[in-house]
Amino acid sequence: MKQLNKRQEAILLSLKKLDYLNRDQLSKIHRLGKKRNTNRILNDLSQYLSHFREEYTTIYYLNKEGREYVNSQKVRRKTSFVQHVIMRNDFYIYSGFPKDWKNEIKIMDDKNSVICDALFSKNGKNYCLEVDSKQQMKENRAKIKRYLSLYNGANNFPTVIWLTTTENRRKQLVELCKDMPCVVYSIDDIR
């Protein structure tokens, strides 16, 4: 394996942390400039990256060599879960790249638990991110019930942020979350 420069290593570490990133996300996170320069940089890393096309964008993730270079144990493949992760990463960028961002974190008390898509803090406040990309509203209702059970009587309960795809779903989530600290965004609000 050849030695990479700091920017190249930072790109691989971002993919280790965030699993899947599209070209535009990589460009924003690492300030790679215009598409042509971003494509050149990513092409130079082709030994360490796998990619595929989805809709109108190319999505990148670490291949075996990339995982070995950054010591990652997580094997990623093209799955139906990718769009969910891309939306989560859009919010990571929107929120200013929080340093304490953690994916798939379990929050629990004595009786209840919930796995949030991401947990982070900003300006001294804690936030749980929930991404509503393709799941049924029934699943969202069940998760909100678990959040409400955790919220009742909890000190320092994090604000729950929902990121969804349509204005209609946004309105439904706002109504369902009215009894706890919550903010709901549509993907169009943050892109």
Condensed summary:
The chain has helices spanning 6-18, 23-30, 35-44, 64-70, 82-94, 137-151, 167-176, 187-190; strands spanning 21-22, 49-54, 57-62, 102-108, 113-122, 125-132, 159-164, 182-186. The protein has 191 residues and is an alpha/beta fold.
Descriptive overview:
42% of the residues lie in helices and 26% in strands. The chain is an alpha/beta fold. The strands form two sheets. A five-stranded mixed sheet has the order 4-5-6-7-8, with helices on both faces. Strand 4 and strand 5 form a beta hairpin. The radius of gyration is 18 Å and the shape is elongated.
Largest sheet features: 5 strands, mixed
Number of DSSP strand runs: 8
Structural class: alpha/beta
Compute the number of helices: 8
Distance between the termini: 36 Å
Query: How many whole angstroms does the radius of gyration measure?
Result: 18 Å
Series of H and E elements: HEHHEEHHEEEHEHEH
* Low-confidence runs: none
Strand composition percent? 25-35%
Strand adjacency order, main sheet: 4-5-6-7-8
Helix percent band: 40-55%
Quick one: overall form?
Answer: elongated
The overall pLDDT average reads: 95
Helix and strand layout, with pairings?
Blueprint: H1 6-18, E1 21-22, H2 23-30, H3 35-44, E2 49-54, E3 57-62, H4 64-70, H5 82-94, E4 102-108, E5 113-122, E6 125-132, H6 137-151, E7 159-164, H7 167-176, E8 182-186, H8 187-190
Helix pairs in contact: 1-4, 2-3
